[in-house]
Amino acid sequence: MRILLGITGGIAAYKAADLARLLTNRGHAVRCVLTEAGARFITPLTLASLTGESCFGANPDHHEWRPSPSVEHIELARWADVVAVAPATANMLGQAANGLAGDLLSTLLLATRAPILWAPAMNTAMWKHPAVQANLGRLEAFGHRIVEPAEGMLACGEAGAGKLADIERIADAIRAVGGERLPSLMGKQVLVTAGPTCEDLDPVRLLTNRSTGEMGIEIARALRDAGADVHLVLGGGMASPYGMETVRVRTAAAMMAACADLWPRMDGCIAAAAVADQRPLQEAMEKVKKGDGPETLELVRTQDILLNLGMQKRVGQNGQWLLGFAAESEHHLENASAKLAKKKLDAVFLNDISTGKAFGHQDNTLTPVVAEGPQAPLGPLPKDQLAMALVAWWAERVGSI
Ligand SMILES: Cc1cc2nc3c(=O)[nH]c(=O)nc-3n(C[C@H](O)[C@H](O)[C@H](O)COP(=O)(O)O)c2cc1C
What residue's CA is closest to ligand 1, atom 1? Predict the structure, then answer.
């Protein structure tokens, strides 16, 4: 992706160096544009060194200029797949909201047809000021996207909202805003389940599993980047990705309830959560004391979420699609095919856990199994790329039926 990174005159400008580096390391082409105030906080040399690209700006004495500066803003505006302003000052938000073109950055913000993302950072009182909020509202109405600032201790010594969002989150938002849309998934309502579930034995002990939730989260991101409207039902402690409604759950029963609530409104679902099959018959309200002899834990089955979604699945016109995973350590294909039929799935992704790679490890392979049989395996790839390959595979298949 070609990312134009605008950096304005806030104290958080020093973090833009890390952001530029992160984006460059992820294989993106990054060109930075500094405002005059921005260049007082961070040097063009730092940014040019980190990105390997020229740094552009308002002051020709400080910045490298192309041969025809008169059209530089148009050239840069056309070059970009996405324009991100991080950190964004109250001043720059105000300029852009009102169509002002006082310097290179504000001018190219008017001239570009690429999607625009703002990552504001400022003092809490400034952030909450009705003028700033009205400007943000105007920018959103133009179709611009915002990465909300975080709460925390600010450089001015106050605590509250206004701290530049985490740079990983800004990078995630850039992906979401500038991602390549896949027509068969664009605007589709998609439910994604991810992460482990936890079943409490008593206030200090629980039954859970080794799923991190990473694969499901990466699938949710890939669907979002493709243009789907993602609704994530998430177990475990991982952060919720940018740009999707997230329902956090703990138990299998809570995950079931959240899915049942969403499912009728969805076009499809990818169920990647590792849901507990059993829960303790009783949850003790006080910590259970150890006994002398052998101890028995009585378990009961939890509801099968995927089976329930399959039973409720709309078919025919306006039909829904449902994709699941089968983590198998033996009889892989028979088990995956049986799951496909029993749970009325459109595809099941076979995950061979006999290699010990499924949980928490980086590279993984998934074999899609459909009614006609197993398809060409996806991977081995790191989970983020595997999720993109999975979503691209499904987008092509769903687009052709
Ligand atoms: C030390 C210092 C820190 C500043 N930090 C911020 C900030 O975090 N956010 C903000 O909106 N403005 C901040 N300002 C004010 C801006 O620098 C000022 O509005 C400037 O005109 C912004 O120009 P620009 O939007 O063209 O970069 C700060 C000013 C100074 C002197």
Answer: 11
